[in-house]
């Protein structure tokens, strides 16, 4: 009786089309192909694979702790799995989209992944001061927020290499940001050999000249305990996988007042006795004392627009 070949474990660190690059526990790297027509793996997946000459076949994807992804009417885009945190990088200039920031935060909350907001270009004093004030509500909600100058021209604000390194230490972090936020610069500062590694991966996967159109995992330390995952820039962030009734629970400022509503199934849009609407009115009242638990008109507008969008989504 022939003994079936043993399956080996591996970590998916990059992918292109139907090919993925995996890393074994002893540090070997090789190309693997999924069994079947579709590639169901994402970077961060732990897989079991079967050797076949100098490559391998993925036989099983191990259960995931989480999966960070976005979804619109056309497709689902998975970024990475088994994450400890998501670093959302935005810039003081050009002006970032607060709607896109909120969508990324909601997606992280939905998967129980810790989000961290990093505001780049702290060396641009006036634009940064305005952006820092604009994002004060997110700090009031309890989100960790870091000032950052990836291309410093002054010492107006402190550099954040040490605090950032401490936040990343021992964790797997997805770096997420819209195009132009400075994400590639951040990756290259954290991993000086990133371009060399991405070129090697692109060559191995026959994906041609590398641009950040795929997701790649890099180790920051030799012990392979701290990982940073680079992802493609984006301009849109669909949340079609979120139900409108879930939305309030995934926005901390809305959630803080939703329990005070008269009706248990309140949409927080028009119902009488709504704690959320009362908090919005309080925040817009100049005579009302300010509170970090109030809801700004900007955030309520984002909530209202998202609720309408998710209520009319098509399947």
Give your account of this protein's structure.
- There is one protein chain.
- The chain is an alpha/beta fold and 315 residues long.
- The protein folds into three domains: 8-61, OB fold (Dihydrolipoamide Acetyltransferase, E2P); 67-230, P-loop containing nucleotide triphosphate hydrolases (Rossmann fold, 3-Layer(aba) Sandwich), CATH 3.40.50.300; 244-311, Ribonucleotide Reductase Protein R1, domain 1 (Orthogonal Bundle).
- The chain is built from nine helices and 13 strands.
- It has helices at 98-110, 125-134, 136-140, 161-168, 183-190, 194-204, 252-258, 275-284, 297-311, and strands at residues 8-16, 19-23, 29-34, 46-52, 55-61, 67-71, 76-81, 85-91, 114-120, 144-148, 172-176, 216-219, 227-230.
- The termini are far apart.
List its salient traits.
single chain; 315 residues; alpha/beta; OB fold (Dihydrolipoamide Acetyltransferase, E2P); Rossmann fold; Ribonucleotide Reductase Protein R1, domain 1; six-stranded mixed sheet; five-stranded mixed β-barrel; 9 helices
